[in-house]
Amino acid sequence: MEEKGEKVCEAARLGDVAGITSLIDAGYDVTYFDADGLTPLMHAAKLGHTQIIRKLIEAGAPWNALSPSSLSAGDFAMQFGHQDSFDLLLNAGVQAELILGTIARKEKENGHLNGNYLEDRVSFSEDKLMDKDSKAVMMAWEKPLMEAHAKAVCSGGGHVLNIGFGMGLVDMAIQQYNPVSHTIVEAHPDVYDRMLSNGWGEKENVKILFGRWQDVLPQLGSYDGIFFDTYGEYYEDMREFQQYLPKLLKPGGVYSFFNGLCGDNAFFHVVYCNLVSLELENLGYTTQLIPLPVKDCLAEDVWEGVRQKYWQLDTYYLPVSQYIDDSV
Ligand SMILES: C[S@@+](CC[C@H](N)C(=O)[O-])C[C@H]1O[C@@H](n2cnc3c(N)ncnc32)[C@H](O)[C@@H]1O
Q: Measuring from atom 11 of ligand 1, which residue has the nearest CA?
């Protein structure tokens, strides 16, 4: 077994297209991890052997396998500057996720939805909001990002909707723009209580809807700006929310969301940025991803006491989506 796997890795390194084709035809394992924890696809990606990558993917090699240092084939292609290989892997990733999305939709229909976050207690401190497993629901380092999101969704003034209050960072920033109305949807009872005790219930232009966005949908109107940032939900849930944009977003309005998608892996993040843009495009929206450097927001000790570093990249891509108006 091992010997066969090594042969596939070797052919991948050599860029031997004929060789790899016959190994694949003979049923050799393309999902093999060698002693260094690398797959044939990673070897090919490191060296930019695009044709080999194509063959391996067609044969079922996983585009998203990770090396011991948590790098995927796409990360290697990116690191070594092999643009064609990178593009091929990116396309493979997006296509695979489009299909997996279909599977996720099916799972959801069958009731496999994650669970208990809304029933468990959360804890607040000055710089973060954590769930019961010490995973960060929201952290203060995101403040500049939330301010940029607020600026984007308030650019047209008018009526603004925010889904997910968290630490209220985006909502505080939205208030600075003095929108005509500012609707906030929040589902967690502890977060809701805290909003009320901090006076959010008495602000003149603020309307709070307590409940999951899925449940308060019938109470929503249409808005000039919408921001989406929940916790404990799947990508699939955000995708579902986006299906309602044609109803919720006024013509000319701006939609934005917290773009933490796969924020711990550079290549997976690019895959998801592409995937979400494509899905929004299918709904009629064009998405700009505005790069914001975030290295300086992340001090050394920022993750102290936090179970999972949900963000490890140097640049944040702030999405700004608007309806594609063909008539102009
Ligand atoms: C990441 S925080 C939001 C942070 C916020 N953008 C800020 O600036 O502080 C996510 C929030 O969404 C809430 N939430 C989770 N699932 C939700 C749902 N289905 N509907 C509404 N709110 C939800 C969580 O309780 C949490 O307060």
A: 164
